[in-house]
Specification:
By secondary structure, this protein is an alpha+beta fold. It has 3 domains: 112 residues, 2-Layer Sandwich (Alpha-Beta Plaits); 97 residues, Roll (Chitinase A, domain 3), CATH 3.10.50; 171 residues, no CATH class. It has 14 helices and 11 strands. Strands 6, 7, 8, 9 and 10 form a 5-stranded antiparallel β-sheet that branches. Strand 1 and strand 2 form a beta hairpin. Helix 3 crosses helix 8, helix 9 crosses helix 10 and helix 11 crosses helix 12.
C-alpha cells in the first residue's frame, strides 16, 4: 500500500491511500473458504457449492469489508506514525469515478491540522486586575439587612414608607412572573413609590421598567430579566400585592452574633463589621479573579493570530453528532464554537510553554479544599482529615466529576500564570465600581 500526505495549506491536507490486491486478497480468500461450508445456492447441497459461485455471490461484499478494514487500520497507524495533530477526525472524500472493480483502489481523506502559532503571554495590554474593597456603605447596608433578616415581621393593612411589600411582578409578553419582596426605596423616583402608598393586599400597581431603578441591572434580581434584555427595556409590569409587613429590627447583641457565627466568635458591632468586610472581600476577590481570567482570555483570542481549517471543520460538524447537521446548521454551530476552540488551543499552548501539568495530587488537593469550603458553609468548620479524604475518594471515583474538577484546576493554574505573565495593572475599587466595570458601563 502506498500512503502519502498532500498539503493544501498550513492547516489542510489530504491523505491519499492506494490499495493493491496483495493488501487484501489473502484475507478475502480466507473469508471465501470460511464461507463455502455455509453457502447456499439453489441446485446445490449446503457445503457443496462450487467456489466460483461462492465468490460470485459473496466475493464483492467480502472484498469491500476487508479493504475497508485494511484502510481504517492503515489510516490510524499513519496518523500515529506521522504524529499528526488533528482537529476533528479524517473525512473520506467522495470520488464519483471510484470503482471496486479497479486493480488499484484509491482512497482520499481530508484532515484538518492544529495550527502552529506563537503565544506571547507578556504582550503589552490594558488589562486591569481589580482589588475590590467593601466600603462603609456596603458594610452598613449588610448590617441593616442582617437586623431586618433576623427581625420580627409585623403584618400591616396598608402600604406606607419603610414597609416590605411581597407580591408578584408580571408581564406576559416578556415572560415575567417573579415573586419578590420589595421596599419603596428600591425605586429610582418618588413618583413610582407614591403609587404604592395606601394600597392593600390584592391591589395591583402598574409601573414601567424604563428608569425604574438606579441601575437597570436590578431588573435581573427583581424580575429575573436576562442581562441582554435589561438595557433599554421599556414595558409595563403589574405588581400584585400579596402581603404587607413592617419589621421590628433585631438587636445587635451577643445572641444575634452567636446565631450568625457561632458562640463567642463575634463580641461587638466593630467585630461584626470587620467580619462582614473580610467575608465580602474574599468573595469579591473570587469575582475579580474570574473577570481577570475572562479579560486575559479575550485579549489572547483577539491578539493571537492563526488560521483554522474552517471549511473542513464545518463539514466535519455535519457528520460527528448523533443527528447529521445541514450545511447551514454546521455553519451556525461553527460560528458559535470557534472562539471556544481558539481558546482551547491557546490554553494548551500556554500550558505547554510553561510546562504546566495536572497531576492526580493536584486534583486531590483542589477537591479537598473545595470540600472544606462547602462544609464550612454548613457550619462544619473543623472536619477531620479522614472525613475529608473519604469524601475526596468518593468524588474522584466519578469520571464526570474528575473531568469537571480537572477543568477547574486548569483554570486555577492558568489564572496564576496570567497574573504573573500578563502583568495587569492593579486598581482598587468599590464593589459598585467593579460591577460597573464588569458590565462595561
Amino acid at each position: 500500500m502506498d500512503i502519502k500526505r498532500v498539503a493544501l495549506d498550513t492547516v489542510n491536507e489530504t491523505i491519499v491511500m492506494t490499495v493493491v490486491p496483495m493488501d487484501y486478497k489473502g484475507q478475502v480468500a480466507k473469508r471465501i473458504n470460511e464461507k463455502m461450508p455455509l453457502a447456499t445456492v439453489k441446485g446445490f447441497r449446503k457445503g457443496a457449492v462450487p467456489k466460483d459461485l461462492v465468490e460470485k455471490q459473496y466475493g464483492k461484499a467480502i472484498k469491500q469489508e476487508e479493504v475497508q478494514k485494511v484502510v481504517d487500520l492503515a489510516l490510524e497507524r499513519f496518523v500515529q506514525s506521522e504524529r499528526l495533530n488533528l482537529l476533528g477526525t479524517p473525512l473520506a472524500k467522495i470520488n464519483k469515478n471510484f470503482s471496486w472493480d479497479a486493480e488499484e483502489l484509491v482512497f482520499e481523506y481530508e484532515i484538518g491540522l492544529i495550527p502552529s502559532f506563537e503565544l506571547d503571554l507578556e504582550a503589552k495590554n490594558n488589562i486591569i486586575k481589580y482589588v475590590v474593597t467593601a466600603d462603609n456603605k456596603l458594610i452598613d447596608g449588610q448590617v441593616a439587612r442582617i437586623q431586618k433578616q433576623f427581625g420580627k415581621a409585623v403584618p400591616q393593612e396598608v402600604v406606607t414608607t419603610g414597609f416590605d411589600i411581597s407580591g408578584v411582578f408580571t408581564n406576559e409578553e416578556k415572560g415575567i412572573a417573579n415573586p419578590t419582596t420589595i421596599s419603596l426605596d428600591i425605586f429610582k423616583d418618588k413618583a413610582t413609590a407614591d403609587k404604592f402608598i395606601g394600597k392593600k393586599a390584592g391591589d395591583v400597581v402598574t409601573v414601567n421598567t424604563k428608569g425604574l431603578f438606579e441601575d437597570d441591572h436590578q431588573l435581573m434580581d427583581v424580575m429575573k430579566v436576562a442581562h441582554d434584555d435589561v438595557h433599554g427595556l421599556e414595558v409595563d409590569v403589574d405588581f400584585t400585592i400579596e402581603s404587607i409587613n413592617s419589621t421590628e429590627l433585631a438587636e445587635l447583641n451577643q445572641e444575634l452574633f452567636d446565631k450568625l457565627f457561632g458562640a463567642g466568635t463575634i463580641a461587638s458591632l466593630g467585630e461584626l463589621k470587620a467580619k462582614i468586610k473580610e467575608d465580602a472581600e474574599s468573595q469579591f476577590a473570587q469575582q475579580a479573579d474570574q473577570k481577570l481570567l475572562g479579560d486575559v482570555t479575550e485579549f489572547l483570542i483577539e491578539n493571537t493570530k492563526f488560521d483554522l481549517p474552517a471549511e473542513f471543520l464545518k463539514k466535519w460538524l455535519q457528520t460527528v453528532g448523533e443527528k447529521q447537521l445541514s450545511p447551514a446548521e454546521a455553519e451556525a454551530e461553527y460560528a458559535r464554537s470557534e472562539k471556544g476552540l481558539r481558546f482551547q488551543l491557546i490554553e494548551g499552548r500556554a500550558m505547554a510553554q510553561s510546562d504546566i501539568k495536572i497531576t492526580f495530587e493536584d486534583l486531590k488537593t483542589f477537591t479537598a479544599k473545595s470540600i472544606r469550603q462547602q462544609m464550612a458553609q454548613f457550619g462544619q468548620t473543623n472536619p477531620t482529615e479522614e472525613e475529608v479524604q473519604g469524601i475526596v475518594a468518593r468524588v474522584l471515583a466519578n469520571q464526570e466529576e474528575v473531568k469537571k474538577l480537572s477543568d477547574q484546576v486548569v483554570a486555577e493554574k492558568l489564572l496564576e500564570l496570567f497574573k504573573e505573565k500578563a502583568n495587569p495593572t492593579t486598581k482598587k475599587v468599590t464593589y459598585e465600581q467593579f460591577i460597573a466595570a464588569s458590565y462595561g458601563e
